[in-house]
Amino acid sequence: METNLNHILVFKTNIDQLSTDCALSESLGKQTGISQWSIDHEDCDRVLRIVSKTLSNHDIISLINAHGFECAELP
Amino acid sequence: MRTRNADKEKLVIEKAIELIVSDGFEGFSMNKLARLCNISVATLYIYYQHKDDLITKIGSEIGTAFFAHTLKDFSADMPFPQGLRKQWENRISFSLQHPKIVACFEIIRHSPHGEQILQTAVSPFKQIMADFFTNAVDNKELQPLPIEVFWSVAYGPLYSLLRFHSEGKSMGGKPFSLTDDYTNQALELVLKALKP
């Protein structure tokens, strides 16, 4: 099914490496409202891409910050 | 409300192909691509999950376009000489019409994504080409050969000529441009060599 483009949120982060069992992966995976997420580790902005119908940019930024990473809306 | 913009997507694909050809697979980045397209990096990430996603999608798209072009007016039950001639004609016309796409596809197929892309783009094509080969052997129009030997003899000369053409020169820098005469000469020799 085609993702609704309004449900895609993108952020600049400093998340370098992420193992599947680390706390951040777990909370992104468990977080209600996130249907899909990915990070482009090759990109200099370590772009985090979230598909969510319900969460706002602010919700995501708080979640990432809570794990000690920087996160900002990608202009 | 954000909507998918087909023109923008087309532009992204076109510029991505140019960038891969000019900077190579390693030199390609989402940032450079966004700048070339005059769109924000965020927009690019809305369309594609990451660099690998973009490269895989573009690779599959151009692979599919190439194989579809190759099969134009071609069928697996054609007599072998006509079928091979059609393959040569189709491959030549695609290379001449889309030199950048061909160069880009070569880079992508040798990248870590090559295998995956070839598997999705090639599968319908592979069956038709395998049938063409088997029919030709069954009809005693073609020597039974290991597929690699067949391919090298059947298409190797064509790709050598196309490479000379795209470089504009042959051995020792001699100017070269592919003509029907050269093509026919090479194809006749190939057909003669493959005959049982």
TrEMBL record, chain A:
Protein name: Copper chaperone
Automatic annotation (TrEMBL), chain B:
Record's signal peptide: none
Positions of the DNA-binding region: 29-48
GO molecular function terms noted in the UniProt entry: DNA binding
Domain of life of the organism encoding this protein: Bacteria
UniProt keyword annotations, A-Z: DNA-binding
All copies of domain HTH tetR-type, residue ranges: 6-66
Protein name, entry field: Transcriptional regulator, TetR family
